[in-house]
Amino acid sequence: MKLFGTAGIRGTLWEKVTPELAMDIGRAVGTYVDGETVAVARDGRTSSVMLQSALISGLLSTGKEVLDFGLIPTPALAWGTREYGDAGVMITASHNPPTDNGIKVFNGDGTEFYVEQERELEELVFSGRFKKAEWDEIKTVKPTDITDGYIGAVLDFVNHETNLKVLYDGANGAGSVVAPHMLREMGARVISVNAHVDGHFPGRKPEPRYENIAYLGELARELGVDLVIVQDGDADRIAVFDEKGNYINEDTVIALFAKLYVEEHGGGTVVVSIDTGSRIDHVVEKAGGKVVRIPLGQPHDGIKRYGAIFAAEPWKLVHPRFGPWIDSFVTMGLLIKLIDERGKPLSEIIREEIPTYYLTKKNVKCPDEFKGIALERAYNALKEKLGGEVKEVLTISGYRFQLKDGSWVLVRPSGTEPKIRVVVEAPSEKRRDELFELAYGTVRKAVEEVMKK
């Protein structure tokens, strides 16, 4: 059994994520981590207090002192861990539906646990070989409010005042306790929606995909705002609309920041996940930098391995100079600063600086036990059909065919659902549609053939 996925432990309450598991993770973290102090926080889900309480009990049983940060966003927990703790644990299922919950573990420097650390923690959980503190070694829980300190740290890093009019959608999530206050301290004129914490997520689904937040485009136009900022349930993800109410593709946001960092550094390496687009390569290479692609869920691994000046995957941006964790608050602050410093609306900045590519994503249902062989069949068939068009094949998290005209085709197994994901991007809509028809049809056929046997 595997506990950790691409972003910590996550799953349906009672089926995968239980108080018993939370207590065992607390025991395992308390046994595994050197140092005396572990920081703990939670998102606003209905089950988070219950799970946090169980986790804290497990930590206390090993003799650790616990700093209880309460209800805060995940980026704030990472920052607070670096400032005050020897490790940190966040109770959250991020953008998953309200039925789910999860657990993320952080090192003392604010990095999420690396793959090898997660594997070792899993082994400890399954072995049950936990430390047991004697009665006189059991320490206390210290409620610790870090909200103002975190906001102050972000504002110091961004170092900018604004008068932009910003529409903020907090998804009824944990970001609502930080973002409106931070933006107002920057001087922004803030209009908030879905900015009261509610674990039922009554306003919208917490994942900031376009179909869940499309209504914000019309609202932006009606309100005449300069920018729309959207977060997910635990506020590590960020989505953006411009002043015209146009949704900004997540790869475009990544490309904008990648370009900015490479220009500032006069070069450098940018690490991005396997499912990100060619517009990033275009702007980074033009600015004198280099792009390296890594598996999903491992930006912190990529920063460490390649000494990256910036790391990202869709909706998730890491600013290493501030901290080695995904941080949407730094992202929103720097985006506002960029708009002000350029002296142009966001739509114009993007039109002038980021090339347009056309992307399509779609999933093919496939039971987990058939994923491996179906992917292998699809890979062999696509390799033959694409033939001389192929420039390179990346074999991390599935197969990504880099084509000579800048197009690419990705087929990869979902790490959380019984699906194979098909992603295609090309410089023109016609080319994208042709490639997508080929790739999607090939994967569907491969899955059908495997399941017939």
From TrEMBL:
Keyword Transcription regulation set for record: no
Domain Alpha-D-phosphohexomutase alpha/beta/alpha positions: 2-130, 149-245, 250-357
Residue span(s) of domain Alpha-D-phosphohexomutase C-terminal: 363-436
InterPro entries per UniProt: A-D-PHexomutase_a/b/a-I (IPR005844), A-D-PHexomutase_a/b/a-I/II/III (IPR016055), A-D-PHexomutase_a/b/a-II (IPR005845), A-D-PHexomutase_a/b/a-III (IPR005846), A-D-PHexomutase_C (IPR005843), A-D-PHexomutase_C_sf (IPR036900), A-D-PHexomutase_CS (IPR016066), Alpha-D-phosphohexomutase_SF (IPR005841)
Pfam families assigned to the protein according to its UniProt record, in alphabetical order: PGM_PMM_I (PF02878), PGM_PMM_II (PF02879), PGM_PMM_III (PF02880), PGM_PMM_IV (PF00408)
GO MF annotation, one: phosphomannomutase activity
Gene3D superfamilies per record: Alpha-D-Glucose-1,6-Bisphosphate, subunit A, domain 3, Alpha-D-phosphohexomutase, C-terminal domain
Name under which the protein is recorded: Phosphoglucosamine mutase
Species, as recorded: Thermococcus thioreducens
